[in-house]
């Protein structure tokens, strides 16, 4: 099989630009088809890579939506637009469609010949299928059937080990074992030692004829054979056969090669499934957040498709913010790594289900659980610690709405998290975890404030001098005092200053406020100003950006 990512490496597509749907580049291409009618969806069977110059692209929204829906039903692999004559660029609806559903939307100049693209891809598909059939013809039917129905790396290794009566292992690109299996009742071997010995003696490798590049050790036991596992043209690991006493046979090589093909297919199929699952997750979020009341039946179906347990006591939404060091793109590596870490956390936490997905340029947590509130909060704190350790450069902040009793109330939890987010984003430079049910007063007081109003309110509370660059030291001292409940000993230790220095700074701050910092009233308003800092900073950043854009214009 061939994927969209591989297709883009063909010479005919060197000028291609992927504008949307990069998450679907692992989609399999079954065939290529040139669009010549608005009803092309009626003739699709799935997995088609569609090419169009735009001549028959619909000119009204209803027809365009109907066409794109037909593409979604048939799960096409991607759309290529040749622009410059009928289209000046990829249609906006197609770009939105591709990004939402992880279907690549690609642009090439009008003069790129479709005939060359279709010929190259079709020949590659046919050639790969032929070679795969040729290799499989040398594999015993019983073994072939078992391998083809195998769903995982571990089961592939177990089937090979039992059938060939030899230990089998899979290593990564650094030659470290991550899957291994031994035949039932077979002799135990030191897998890593055998592999390391083979690599050290690599000068004695020989190549077998009529198969992929296959290497053999010399004629002394343990006998070792391996074959590279290539995925989308790149070597991603190695499949090993280790025979302590039994000499290697040529038929072993064909079985190993066929197994390597199956392993590659498993990875590509899983990537393809992940792209489709992401599409389902985004559709579910859109339904829940935009139209939950009228779409309850569809929502239940999608939850079932995503294999999320519906009989849960708690449903809640969360946002994962990138903290003070904001990422430049919602699809950057940083966002992807956070999403992967969340998936791992959900998979490993008992009693928890759901997903993390990038929705409207935000990382959204969808959580269902049968745990009580306290264990859920403990689990979320554990997630935040994991994120801090693995993605420290983003200073991740986890914000959770309140737990709800029904999935259709997820929207309420989401809006609670969204209202809380700007209030806490700048509070901790090392990230943190915040729960809306613990910050109800702050949300009630400030949740309706716009960033601009927050900035205005804050400037009324704080003396002007504290908000200037010259007053930064005094402002940071005031923050430290408030965070430490005005305990001077703690503040001197945290700021690494002498007590007399702190006394001087407090005196200056009190002069600016014209009020003692021991006053409960003064302390209350200082806390209000600090609570508004992140929301006001959001306005300040957008204001500066607008000013800069105005200067450029």
From TrEMBL:
Residues 474-531 form the PucR C-terminal helix-turn-helix domain. Residues 6-125 form the Purine catabolism PurC-like domain. InterPro entries: CdaR-like_regulators (IPR051448), PucR_C-HTH_dom (IPR025736), PucR_C-HTH_sf (IPR042070), PucR_dom (IPR012914). It comes from the Bacteria. Pfam families: HTH_30 (PF13556), PucR (PF07905). Gene3D superfamilies: PucR C-terminal helix-turn-helix domain (1.10.10.2840). This is PucR family transcriptional regulator.
């Amino acid at each position: 099989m061939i994927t969209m990512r591989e297709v883009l490496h063909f010479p005919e597509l060197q000028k291609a630009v992927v504008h949307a749907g990069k998450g679907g580049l692992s989609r399999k291409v079954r065939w290529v088809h040139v669009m010549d009618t608005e009803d092309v969806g009626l003739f699709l069977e799935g997995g088609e890579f569609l090419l169009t110059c735009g001549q028959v692209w619909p000119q009204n929204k209803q027809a365009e939506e109907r066409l794109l829906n037909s593409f979604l039903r048939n799960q096409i692999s991607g759309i290529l637009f040749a622009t410059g004559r009928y289209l000046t660029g990829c249609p906006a609806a197609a770009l939105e469609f591709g990004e939402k559903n992880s279907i690549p939307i690609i642009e090439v100049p009008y003069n790129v010949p479709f005939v060359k693209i279709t010929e190259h891809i079709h020949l590659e598909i046919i050639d790969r299928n032929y070679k795969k059939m040729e290799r499989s013809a040398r594999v015993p039917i019983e073994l072939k059937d078992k391998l083809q129905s195998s769903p995982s790396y571990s089961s592939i290794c177990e089937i090979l080990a039992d059938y060939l009566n030899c230990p089998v292992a899979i290593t990564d690109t650094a030659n470290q074992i991550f899957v291994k299996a031994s035949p039932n009742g077979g002799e135990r071997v030191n897998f890593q030692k055998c592999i390391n010995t083979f690599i050290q003696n690599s000068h004695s490798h020989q190549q077998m004829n009529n198969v992929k590049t296959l290497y053999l050790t010399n004629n002394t036991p343990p006998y070792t054979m391996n074959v590279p596992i290539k995925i989308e043209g790149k070597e991603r690991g190695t499949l090993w056969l280790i025979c302590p006493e039994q000499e290697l046979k040529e038929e072993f090589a064909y079985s190993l090669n066929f197994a390597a093909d199956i392993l590659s297919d498993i990875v590509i199929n899983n990537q393809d499934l992940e792209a489709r699952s992401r599409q389902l997750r985004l559709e579910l979020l859109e339904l829940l957040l935009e139209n939950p009341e009228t779409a309850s039946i569809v929502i239940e179906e999608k939850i079932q498709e995503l294999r999320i347990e519906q009989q849960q006591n708690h449903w809640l939404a969360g946002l994962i913010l990138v903290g003070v060091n904001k990422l430049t793109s919602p699809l950057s590596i940083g966002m992807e790594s956070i999403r992967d870490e969340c998936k791992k956390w959900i998979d490993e936490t008992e009693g928890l289900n759901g997903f993390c997905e990038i929705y409207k340029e935000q990382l959204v947590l969808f959580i269902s659980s049968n745990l009580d509130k306290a264990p859920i909060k403990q689990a979320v704190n554990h997630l935040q610690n994991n994120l801090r350790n693995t993605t420290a450069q983003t200073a991740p902040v986890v914000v959770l709405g309140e737990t709800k009793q029904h999935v259709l109330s997820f929207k309420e939890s989401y809006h609670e998290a969204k209202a809380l987010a700007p209030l806490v984003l700048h509070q901790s430079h090392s990230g943190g975890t915040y729960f809306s049910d613990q910050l109800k007063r702050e949300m009630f007081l400030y949740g309706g404030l716009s960033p601009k109003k927050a900035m205005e309110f804050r400037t009324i509370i704080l003396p002007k001098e504290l908000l200037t660059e010259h007053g930064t030291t005094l402002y940071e001292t005031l923050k430290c005092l408030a965070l430490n409940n005005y305990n001077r000993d703690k503040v001197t230790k945290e700021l690494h200053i002498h007590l007399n220095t702190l006394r001087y700074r407090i005196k200056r701050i009190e002069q600016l406020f014209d009020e003692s910092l021991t006053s409960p009233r003064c302390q209350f308003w200082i806390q209000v100003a600090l609570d508004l800092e992140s929301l006001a900073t959001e306005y300040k950043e957008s204001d500066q950006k607008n000013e800069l854009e105005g200067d450029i214009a």
